[in-house]
Amino acid sequence: MENQAQRFPLLPRTKSPAQGGDISGVGAVELRAFEYCLRWMCVDQSTLWKAVLSWSVFFLLTVAVPLASLFGMRCYSTCDDDHRRPYRAVVQGSLSVFAAISFICLSRWTRKYGLRRFLFLDRISDATDDVRRGYAKQLQSSLMLWSFFILPCFLLETAYKLWWYITGGSTIPHLGNIYASHTIACVMELASWLYRASIYFLVCVLYRLICYLQILRIQDFAQAFSEETEVDPILTEHLKLRRYLRIISHRFRLFVLLSLILVNASLFVSLFMITRTGSHANILKAGDLSLCAISIATGLVICLRSAAKVTHKAQSLTGLAAKWHISAMISSFDECDTETQRNRISSSYPSPPVNEVWGSETTDEGEGDDDLENANIDPIVAHTISFQKRQALVTYLEHNRAGITMFGFTLDRTWLHTICAIELSLLLWLLNKTIGFS
């Protein structure tokens, strides 16, 4: 019964009320592109034969080809110093481990939830038009972003592999005809590298995409402070946002944690091998190691930056609610003042309206990250809510700061800056030792 419930197509072909409507809605074309991408990488396991094909391709390109390259292409006795590839074990191991984690997680998510539910498209039917249009636009740009990271790295890896096989010549191990053997080996190695890197970057981009949907929801939720005349709808929407963030945190927490641990482990092992006595690293011997380090560190930064941005937006709601509360208080006190007092104050110290004061904080610096703080507040709408309700809502938001978490730890900007500083230090140290970049 459980297997039957899990075996369903990635995209439903008919309208399902439980899934939020027809697939022909917002982002249908982009969602089909994601489905084709998963099928192209053989991650689609909606049927038995597709699952067998998916796992077969996974073991071939993630396990068999790297092992064959690691043990079958050793040429310590015949190759010169630049063709010995002393760091290939770290490179193959790192890429295979990250690909395995990404493949297992992605297979489980798509098999358990389906692509539409996994991307929260079943929850977007109750969203506003701005959220739906923004998410459709982000769906389209996500595949472009994925290609933007993959293609340059793949071109560099292709250039490195072609140089290694062409200049190595007969000193590189081969079976039978040297040209056919090296061509097949080069193609299989490149296919293995592309497959492993693509799966890892795809999961990172999907994580960024899901986080962006919550950012759109938070930005739309901020408008409630200038439109709603009751606290109940605001509280209900905030509880819904917290639930979505908890779901995202729970689904991705193991992937983010393992990525964080393994990226640091890979960089430390690479630095240990490069800095040990007798090691003479250069771009020819350690070019693939540098490219591997850049790839896995970039994927981790994508995930952490997306999580930190969602957390920052969600926690900015507390300041917005406080501004909404105090603007209503100032407006109510202004109404209680006598006309004489208002005239005396206005004649001596002209004061702009409350909404003009709050809305005049926009600056060019940091505008993209702090746009919630610059949202206009309507004190007339806020004044229709009692002081006790407004105060209770602000207190609730202060003690229930939403955000992306990882086993209880909030992934905010402090985490992002600390981890990025460590990763950047290790990466620059590694690049300085391999290609002379610092």
Automatic annotation (TrEMBL):
<keyword id="KW-1133">Transmembrane helix</keyword>
<feature type="region of interest" description="Disordered">
    <location>
        <begin position="343"/>
        <end position="373"/>
    </location>
</feature>
<feature type="transmembrane region" description="Helical">
    <location>
        <begin position="252"/>
        <end position="274"/>
    </location>
</feature>
<feature type="transmembrane region" description="Helical">
    <location>
        <begin position="286"/>
        <end position="304"/>
    </location>
</feature>
<feature type="compositionally biased region" description="Acidic residues">
    <location>
        <begin position="362"/>
        <end position="373"/>
    </location>
</feature>
<feature type="transmembrane region" description="Helical">
    <location>
        <begin position="89"/>
        <end position="109"/>
    </location>
</feature>
<keyword id="KW-0472">Membrane</keyword>
<protein>
    <submittedName>
        <fullName>Uncharacterized protein</fullName>
    </submittedName>
</protein>
<feature type="transmembrane region" description="Helical">
    <location>
        <begin position="143"/>
        <end position="166"/>
    </location>
</feature>
<feature type="transmembrane region" description="Helical">
    <location>
        <begin position="197"/>
        <end position="216"/>
    </location>
</feature>
<keyword id="KW-0812">Transmembrane</keyword>
<dbReference type="InterPro" id="IPR021924">
    <property type="entry name" value="DUF3537"/>
</dbReference>
<dbReference type="Pfam" id="PF12056">
    <property type="entry name" value="DUF3537"/>
</dbReference>
<feature type="transmembrane region" description="Helical">
    <location>
        <begin position="48"/>
        <end position="69"/>
    </location>
</feature>
